[in-house]
Design brief:
Layout lengths: L1 E4 L6 H7 L6 E2 L2 E2 L5 E5 L1 H27 L2 H6 L7 H9 L6 E7 L7 E6 L6 H17 L13 H12 L5 E6 L4 H16 L3 E6 L4 E2 L5 E2 L8 E5 L2 H4 L14 E3 L12 H8 L9 E3 H9 L2 H20 E6 L9 E4 L2 E5 L10 E5 L10 E9 L2 E10 L9 E3 L1 E3 L2
Parallel strand pairs: 4-21, 7-8, 7-11, 11-12
Antiparallel strand pairs: 1-4, 2-3, 5-6, 5-18, 9-10, 13-17, 14-15, 14-17, 15-16, 18-19, 19-20
Length: 408
């Protein structure tokens, strides 16, 4: 994996405005940045990213079944008791999934290491699926990229196929996000675009305009019944809203389904390590509370945790990361080395949540930036990647999106 300096397209900002990519710059800083791009070999893409991501998703589905069968794990993931049946039923009834994004630490050499799974409401979809593909085509045409260069990016086509697989033609879908958020709307519109290409109806409604009918059905801003709702609003918040009590009786199919609340939770990471300890794409991870109990020698579960912790203790002591089980954009995350905090997020919005401890996987450093590879899952298969980089080792809300290509 290389970072290659390249000339920008002379008219890319005008093109971004024309296609509605209004968040190419955010908070006075560039978000989309094509002054350079990441170059991969085909072997790196196929063997180190694509195949492992598809395998990891299958492992995550195994973890869902494990968590649903365990009240103890439901407790560890802080799933509200009142809605655990809703989460379990969505899994047992086979509520369909559409997409998700693994975040990997990867330097082009060893196995990619899973940092977390954004399985419920991942953003950066539009720029991954569409804008970086247009960049590739334009730069090939301009001769900036070598002839035969490609990109690992079948995300949009995979979404179209997934919608067509899940829903009958002419089915009506609704899409919602928090109002006045250009980035969120860009993601929702990318999904709606794919749904329309799949022959489905796609209707948008701001989240705060969704209503409840007298007979318990969700309605859009034109009083139409919502039968299927893609919501760019995380389950960890939705399950704590008053509206959550009406979900089960509404007859509405949610995308992503309620069982994705188990995969978008960073408590997934200790569960995966417990189930697949030593897997080359996983990092040792433990619930912070579990580690404390293990070290205190309490009970059979603590004995298992203590044994696993002992095997990982030296690596964790060298360097580890502490993350709240519910956190976004790196909020309330801290990096520890040799017993000292060496970096911490300035955003502490999620500090009140229980935490996990995960072995530290250093991100590569290229031109002063640290890239994270986002591997997109559509259905149950990896369909493409997007890359964000940050000058901090904790990828946060002002990270930059960088295009990539596969060397011929």
């Amino acid at each position: 994996m290389q970072k290659i300096t390249l000339p920008e397209r002379p008219n890319w900002r005008e093109h971004a405005q024309d296609v509605g990519f209004s968040f190419a710059d955010m908070h006075g800083e560039p978000y989309w940045d094509e002054t350079s791009a990441y170059a991969f070999t085909l072997e790196q893409i196929e063997n180190d990213l694509e195949d492992p991501a598809t395998e990891l998703h299958a492992m995550c589905r195994d973890a869902v079944a494990e968590i649903i069968a365990s009240e103890e794990l439901m407790d560890c993931l802080a799933i509200p008791e009142a809605h655990r049946d809703l989460v379990a039923a969505s899994w047992r009834e086979g509520d369909p999934e559409i997409y998700g994004r693994f975040d990997f630490a990867y330097d082009g050499d060893g196995p990619a290491k899973l940092l977390e799974y954004n399985a419920d409401t991942p953003t950066s979809l539009y720029e991954s699926a569409a804008f970086q593909w247009q960049w590739l085509e334009d730069q090939l045409k301009a001769g900036v990229l070598p002839e035969g260069a490609d990109q690992f990016n079948g995300i949009h086509e995979a979404l179209v196929a997934r919608f067509a697989e899940v829903f009958e033609p002419d089915s009506d879908l609704h899409f919602t996000a928090v109002a006045d958020s250009p980035e969120d709307y860009g993601t929702v519109e990318a999904m709606g675009w794919a749904a329309r290409e799949a022959g489905l109806g796609a209707h948008y409604c701001d989240l705060d305009k969704i209503a409840l009918s007298d007979d318990g059905q969700f309605l859009d801003d034109q009083d139409r019944r919502i039968a299927v709702l893609f919501k760019l609003y995380p389950w960890e918040d939705l399950l704590r809203d008053d509206y959550a009590a009406h979900i089960a009786g509404s007859g509405c199919l949610f995308l992503e389904p309620a069982w994705k609340a188990l995969l978008s939770n960073k408590g997934l990471l200790p569960v995966l390590w417990q189930m697949f300890e030593g897997h080359p794409n996983l990092l040792p991870a433990f619930f912070e509370a579990e580690v404390g109990e293990a070290l205190a020698g309490r009970g059979a579960a603590s004995e298992r945790a203590a044994a696993a912790f002992d095997r990982a203790a030296a690596r964790l002591a060298e360097a580890h990361v502490r993350k709240p089980i519910l956190s976004r954009e790196g909020a309330s995350v801290s990096i520890h080395q040799a017993g000292e905090v060496v970096e911490t997020s300035t955003n502490t919005d999620y500090a009140q949540h229980p935490r996990i401890i995960q072995a530290y996987a250093p991100l590569p450093t290229l031109d002063g930036f640290h890239p994270v590879v986002g591997a997109w899952i559509v259905g149950q298969t990896c369909a493409g990647i997007g890359i964000r980089e940050d000058c901090s080792r904790i990828t946060q809300d002002l990270s930059r999106f960088k295009p990539h290509y596969i060397k011929p």
